[in-house]
Structures are given as C-alpha cells and as structure tokens.
Design a protein that fits this description.
Length: 752
C-alpha cells in the first residue's frame, strides 16, 4: 500500500465561526498536525543549537575583562575574528556579532508609511547574550572599531552596532578591510573612518522597498492564487525571465536546413570547405532539393581557389574576476552553484591557517563589480610572472581593465592576496572545494597580468559555378596568458593554397539539421542576464535563484537547467498580468540605479521610496479589489484511488507536486511522485534507482539518485544512471552506471 506522505489540507476556519462540534476524524487530523509541527519545531531547534554551539558568546564578565584597556574590534563571523586576533596581537580583542544584531521583525511589514517610511528595527531574537557581551566589552575597552564587511550590508551592520553600543557614527569607528592579510588589516586599523551613512541608507532603502513589495504582494497571492505563496521585488523579475524563456521554447517551431561540406585536395593538401554563398550572397540550403541542386552544380563545375589569407592577431588577457563572472566560471568549470561559490569564497577571504605564516586571507573581498587592481597587487603579480613564468610573458606595463556600464568600483577585483601563494603549495591546507575555487581565482588573477597570446588565423575561399565555400583555421603561435588560463582555441591547420589554382573534388558530405530552441538558463546564465539587464548587485546574485527555488517556483532538470514549475508559472502569470510595470526588467533596473544614487549621495532615500510607493499603492489597491482568482488545475493521472476508487490527480503542495485523491477531504490518500530509472541498484541488487531531491543542507533542492529500499540500502549518486549495455567481451550485461563520489552533508535529507 502506498505511503501516505501529505494531504492537501484546507485552511483553518476562523475561531469565531467554528462549528460547535467536530468529527472524531477531524480531531485526530488536528492532533496529528499539531504533533508533527511540535516535532518539526523541536528538531529545528536542536539543529540550530548544534550549529551555533561553537559560536556562543563567552561569559559576559569574562568578555568585558578580556577587552579592558584594549582596542575592541567587532566583525561578523567567528572565523574572521580568529584570523584578526592572531594578526593584531595582544593589544586588541576581537569579537564577532555573528551576523546582524538588529533587523526588521518577521511576520509584519514594520515600515511606518505615514512617517517617512521609518523602519522599525528590533534586536535579532537569540542575540541578547551576544549584544550584552558586546556592550560590556565595549564599555571596558579603550576604543571600539567596527570591522564588518566593506559593502552596503556590512555598513548597515556597523551602524546597528554603533547604535547599540552608543558609538557616534561620525567618529572614526569604522574600518574596512579589502583583504585579510597582515598588511591589509594593519593598514585598515591605522586608517579608521566614519560610518558612511549613504551606504547605510542605500541598504535601508533596499530593505524598505523589499518589505513594501513582499509584504503587500504575498498576502494578495494568498488570496488570489493559493495560501503560503510569496513574491519579491527582484526575485519575481528573475522568475519572469525564466518563464519567458520557457514560453519561447514551447512556442519554438524548428526549421529545416542542410550543411554541405566539400572535401577537395591538390596533391597531399586536403581541405574541407563549407558551402556558404550563392551568387555572392549568404546561402544555407533550406531543404533537400536546394541541397541536391547545390551538390549537382559543384560536381559539374571546377573548384577554384578564390582567396587564401593568413592574419596574425593578438588575444589580450582576460580581466580578473568580479562577482558575477566568478559565479559564472565556477558554475561552468567546477559545477558550483552561486550560493556555494560565495560560501567557499567567504572562507578564503576570512582566512586559512598557513604553517609558518599563521592565518591568512587568501583572496580579496568577493562581492564587487570592479575590475580594478591595487598598485601593490600589480607589482607583486609582475614580480611573480617574471620570476616563475618568464620575462617573455611579462608585458611592458601592467594591464588595466575598465568594466562596461555602471560600476560602483568600491572595491578591487577578486584576486589572490599573494600570487606567490600558489594553489599547489596550499593544496594540503585547503579543503577540496577551497582548493578548486582558489585555483580558479589565482589563475585568473595572474593570467590577467600576462602578455597577450598570439594566434594565426587562416582562411581559404573557393568557388564552383555560382556557389562559394570556405574553411577557417587557427593556430596559437605564442600562448601568452594561455599558459595559465585556457585560451579556448581548438587548433586547426590549413595547408597553404594559391589563388586561381584548381582543386580536385574528393567528396561532398550532406547533413540535415533543424534549428534548436533557445536553451534554458543555468544558474550562471541567469546571473549573466541579470547583470546585463542591471538587476541585482554583487551581494544579491547568489540569493536570487535560491530564493525562487526554495519557493518551488523553479526546479533544476538533470542538466542543472532552470525550469519553472506549474506553480511558478501561474504566480508569474498573475504578477505580469496585474503588475506589468512593476514586474519587469526595466523598472527593476531603474530601481537599482536609484539605490546606487542613494549610495553616492545624489538621491535622498526617502524620496526614492516615496516615488515608488506612490506608483505602486494605487495599482495594489485596484488589483486587490478587481483581480480574478487564479487556481492551479489538478492534472488527472488516469488512475483510480486504491482506497475509495475516485480519480487520482497531481496536486501542488507546500513541498512540490504530489499525487492525491479527488475525494479529499473524505479520502486522504496521497503518495509521492516517483521518477524511476528502470535500473537495479548496483549496491544491493534488489531495489531500483529512483530520482530524489535533497531536502536540507548545502545541497537542498539538488537531484540525486537513490535506492527504493532506502533506508535499508543507502546507495546514492549525483550522476544520472545509464542503461545497461552488453559487454563486447563476453556478451553479458554490463552496467554503464557511473558511480561517483556522493557527498551529502550531515544536514542533508533525502526527499522524493
């Protein structure tokens, strides 16, 4: 009998209108739901306690005494605190706030629209002991420096800390570290500054705008579409981009075309040229008849070389990473999601213990849209290149890069803090994922300061009657920066030819093709589009995709492409239909530009928020009154319920799609949707491999393959299993299943 996993429960009735008596079944259901909720809460609490056990603040009195007569430095993370304390020495006491200490409360909008959109901040729950400890330490210390990350959010954290610790924000209480090295830290401490209120107000206006949108649109979605839904200012635009790409794919009509490759030679010289012109104009055969017509003409006419040319050119080095490009390259080359990339980068920035050097931040700050490199970075990289790679690879002067479009340029590009700390030298001191990402960042940084690569491009053009054909080749003559970073050049050598000479036809290869629809976005591809359209900023890219994935608005297919779910598409349809001027790329990009203006001090944050609200509020009120309700139609599966005989359908619940009975609430039969592979488990040989999803942990939402006999059989793999094939040696079946290392952290839970 199928396992009952969940039911599509109706919303609870208002207590004032509750019926006098309830059925025994309904009471049992409510008790069960209450028990589940209690168990879930207790489990979550235990997990949180376990996760933060090592981060608990010390005894308040002991913390205060440790700061007495010293300079107190407050950072966000315990790892960063440990690194700084070792660098700064005994005259400093470094403490961690463990993230935000004040924030807007959850569960209500907490923005006073009538009072200039004044946000209502509260101390973060669970941080009372940390706040008391920091206050006591600050009072005993001779000076307090706030060293949160050097971006908008970090500036806001510093301002909240200053408010709680009674520190004047205009005093020299703020230090910003681009890199956590001995030089970077001591230089920052020696040059403190005031808190930049423009940055604080830019972050505050973002939070207020997100509250005004999210806390007004989400209840509307509850009422008009389904309970439990939510919407966001930026995430909803990202969802629209993904849905529109899916619409393009579904509307796409393939068109036929043909490729004609002419194989011709002259003695030992051999060429493979593609037909690309007819009567001097671009030509691609659109059907078999056109292809045969071209083939016949080529066979009946001599093939004459029209032109042979060689062009020497240089390929300048690529710039060092900024946040968006790092996320794209880490996804493409390492298979890292944006969130994973930023988590690993944060650990490299905060510091790694290196024998003989102590804790060292290996990379500069990783949330940036700048391509600028500091003079000392240029100098050290040039010394490394000359000493370890060769003088031929060192250009006459440093390579300078300028980002396209608007850039805040508040930080450097992402780079290794010391090029002499090579990835191979540090490999034994890094985790596998730290090594992979550091290797990527280090190579891109060093390559950015190397000499251009030299390539030789060769082209041969020929004709036969009214048809023209061409072959192109490329050869690297000097690898330059390609010695460190892949050039992406596939060498093709074309033998020399003379204009006017005739070639002998050897063969004509004909191949039918069809145009392909645009590809679905990957995480990295979506980040690239968001950046190109001016949506989001370096600090927000990683969270955008994960947020809409956590809401079950999108999912990842077997190729890690982003696919909108049925729920995501109906939410997008509703928002685009009734808020077309809000949920679009142009408006969102304009808002991001306005926030940049607040940061630069050229715009007042209240004026920016008021301008938005005055446009948004009338539309919101009108939609609330007039919009039609949208519902997700249940999809029949052509199967009857084994308990009551009524039809079964696919429904969409809190955890995604599942199969349920149409007889609900009288019949509460449900079961998971299982995607089978038809392949036996290679570990136990009894169960079958099915597709599951990780429900928790760092890999939450990612598809993997597990045995149907779980938990009796715990076999799992990330890679999609292949069908069995016959072994050529003995004719027996041989599994083509690729069993790779499967790493699921302790917090990961398997889910169908």
């Amino acid at each position: 009998m199928a396992k009952k996993t969940r039911a599509d429960k109706p919303s609870k009735p208002d207590k004032k209108n509750k019926p006098a008596a309830k059925s025994a079944a309904k009471k049992n259901d409510e008790k069960l739901a209450s028990a589940k909720k209690t168990a879930s809460t207790e489990k979550s609490t235990r997990a949180k306690k376990s996760a933060t056990k090592s981060a608990r603040p010390p005894n308040i009195a002991a913390s205060a005494e440790a700061s007495a007569g010293k300079t107190l430095v407050i950072v966000e993370s315990p790892a960063k605190a440990r690194t700084l304390e070792k660098i700064l020495g005994r005259s400093y006491h470094v403490r961690s706030s463990i993230g935000h200490v004040r924030d807007l409360p959850k569960g209500r909008i907490a923005v006073d629209v009538e009072n200039n959109f004044e946000p209502e901040y509260i101390n973060v729950r669970g941080k009372a002991d940390i706040i008391k400890s920091l206050k006591a330490a600050s009072e005993k210390s001779k000076r307090t420096l706030l060293a949160s990350d050097p971006d908008r959010e970090g500036e806001a954290i510093a301002w909240h800390l200053a408010t709680l610790l009674n520190i004047d924000p205009s005093s020299d209480c703020r230090i910003r570290m681009q890199e956590i090295t001995e030089h970077g830290v001591k230089n920052a401490v020696a040059n403190p500054n005031h808190i930049d209120m423009n940055l604080v107000e830019a972050q505050q206006s973002r939070r207020v705008l997100d509250r005004l949108v999210g806390y007004n649109l989400s209840p509307l979605l509850w009422y008009k579409v389904r309970r439990g839904l939510s919407a966001g200012r930026v995430q909803s635009v990202a969802l629209r981009i993904i849905c529109e790409r899916e619409d393009e794919i579904e509307a796409f009509v393939p068109e036929e075309y043909w490729l004609l490759d002419v194989v011709a030679s002259n003695g030992a010289r051999r060429y493979t040229m593609r037909v690309d012109k007819k009567k001097g104009k671009k030509f691609v055969p659109g059907n078999l008849a056109q292809s045969l017509e071209a083939e016949e003409a080529i066979r009946n006419n001599p093939i004459t070389v029209e032109n042979f040319r060689v062009k020497e050119s240089k390929r300048p080095s690529l710039p060092p990473f900024k946040t968006s490009v790092l996320q794209q390259e880490a996804s493409r080359r390492l298979g890292f999601s944006p969130r994973r990339t930023m988590r690993v980068a944060q650990s490299l920035y905060e510091g790694v213990e290196i024998p003989g050097r102590g804790p060292v931040g290996l990379i500069t700050y990783m949330r940036t849209d700048s391509l600028r490199l500091a003079p000392e970075a240029l100098d050290s990289s040039r010394k490394f290149i000359e000493k370890n790679i060769g003088a031929d690879y060192l250009p006459d002067r440093p390579n300078i890069f300028t980002p396209k479009g608007r850039s805040q340029d508040a930080h450097e590009a992402i780079r290794a803090t010391d090029p002499f700390l090579t990835p191979e030298a540090l490999k034994s001191h890094l985790t596998p994922e730290q090594f992979k990402l550091y290797d990527l960042i280090w190579k891109r940084f060093v390559a950015s300061q190397m000499s251009p690569a030299h390539v030789s491009r060769t082209t041969i053009e020929a004709s036969a009657g009214e048809y023209g054909m061409k072959q192109e080749g490329i050869v690297v003559t000097f690898d330059g920066w390609g010695k460190i970073w892949p050039l992406g050049v596939k060498a093709t050598v074309i033998p020399p030819a003379e204009a006017g000479e005739n070639l002998i036809l050897n063969d004509i290869k004909r191949e039918q093709k069809f145009t392909q629809p645009p590809a679905r976005y990957t995480d990295a591809g979506l980040v690239k589009v968001l950046e190109e359209k001016g949506i989001g900023r370096p600090s927000t890219y990683a969270s955008i995709v994960e947020t809409i994935a956590d809401r079950n608005y999108i999912e990842r297919d077997d190729d890690k492409k982003l696919v909108p779910t049925k729920l995501g598409r109906i939410v997008n349809t509703f928002l685009v239909k009734y808020f077309p001027k809000l949920i679009n790329t142009e408006f969102t990009a304009t808002m991001e530009s306005d926030l940049d203006s607040v940061e630069s001090g050229s715009e007042n944050w209240i004026a920016v928020v008021r301008s938005f609200w005055e446009k948004f509020k009338p539309v919101l009120d009108n939609v609330t009154e007039t919009a039609e309700r949208m519902r997700i139609e249940a999809t029949p599966i052509g199967e009857d319920c084994p308990e009551c005989g009524k039809p079964l359908v696919i429904k969409n619940g809190r955890f995604g799609e599942f199969i349920a009975c149409t007889g609900y609430p009288d019949c509460k039969y449900t079961r998971n949707i299982v995607k089978t592979t038809g392949i036996k488990c290679p570990k136990c040989g009894e169960g079958e491999l099915i597709q599951r999803r990780a429900a928790k942990g760092k890999v939450k939402g990612r598809s993997f393959y597990g045995c149907t006999r779980y938990p009796d059989c715990d076999h799992v793999s990330w890679k999609k299993p292949a069908a069995k094939k016959a072994s050529p040696a003995n004719g027996n079946e041989e599994s083509a299943y690729d069993e790779s290392d499967m790493e699921i952290d302790d917090g990961a839970v398997m889910s169908s």
